[in-house]
Structure formats: C-alpha cells, structure tokens
Fold:
Amino acid sequence: MLQIPLEQASLSTAHTVIEGVATLAFALSGMMEAARKRLDVVGVCVVAGVTAFGGGTLRDVLLDRRPFFWVDHANWLWLLFGLCAVAMLFLRKRDLHLTVRAMQVPDAIGLGLFAASGTQIALANGMPGLVAVIMGVISAVFGGVLRDVLCNQIPHAFHDHVPYASCAFAGCWVVVLVEAQPGYGGLALAAGTIIATALRLVALAFDLRLPVWRAHADDED
Structure:
C-alpha cells in the first residue's frame, strides 16, 4: 500500500482547509459587491464565483496544475450556490445597507489565506522564491480584480491607493522565508496568512496610502 508521508498529508489537508475558507471569504466579498450593484440572482452567483475561484484558477493555469482546485473540490460549488441563495434571502428580508467597508473584512481574510496557500503550492511545484511570491499574489488579488471588472469599475486593487497587493506580497515572502526552515510548512501558511491579513486591516484602519503618480499639467493635455 502506498504510504503518504505524514508531513505531506498534513500540508495537503491544510491547503484544502485554507483554500476552502479563502474561497468562502472571497465568495462573500463578491456576493456583497454584486448585491450593492443590484444584480439579479444569476449575476450574484457569477460574480461571487469569479471572485472566489478566479485568482486560484489563474494560478493553476500558469503552474499547469490539473485539475483546477475547484474542480478537485466540486462540493465547494454547491456550497457557493447555497451561500448565495441563503444570503440573498437574508439580505432581502433584512434590507441591509451594504457598503464598501462591509466587504473589507472577508476580503482581507481571503487575501491572506490565498496569498499564503498560493505561495506554498508554487513552492511545492518547484518554483523559485520570487516566482512563488508572484503566484501567491495572483492567487490573492486577481479574483477581486475580475470581480470589479465584471461590476464595471476600475479594480480597487489598482486605484484606491490603500495597500492591497503589497500586503499579499509581504505575506508571500513570509511564507517563502519560513518555508526555507525544515519542518515549518504549517507555520509558514499560518504566518503568511496572518501577516498579509493584518497588514491589510491595519492599512484600512489607519487609512494608509501608497504613493500616487501625479502627472504634470503638460502630460494631461
């Protein structure tokens, strides 16, 4: 009988749990944005699905990793549809006012989870540190980018000047550094997730801003 090393099995379980939680967090973020835009039930499900699965799918395409993570865990699709149905019924009854700030906590959690998980998956596929970090950022950021494109707006990650991708970038490097220490795979996931999520929440709480490109008057003509 084939024996799977305990550490490898543990990391596989950790990846499954983390990607499941991250998927739900991003799905909630996408669903709330779709509800704010007053999309119908189909639009809500599509935007929630793209937000939840978009970044991880692009990562898997670039890494030539099959099956895609959501195909390998197809039950997440049913969970996504159930979440959308229950949430829409709840929101209709309660008539809650959805704001951009209401999306920020689940979005920050999904950012940290996908950044850490995506980086470690890339490392497990033999990618060098910098490439693994880029894959982690793609996993964490591009679901939200696709969400905003579908909702007909410039992606928040590119124009609101509050650190977002840079938070994922920092968390991804934490994963790479901790992963370099033998036997700390599980800690790498936790550390990267906590750092990326915490940085994003701190940036939001203190309204931190990235430098803005300011064009000269002559350049605007």
Notes: The chain has one domain: 19-85+96-209.
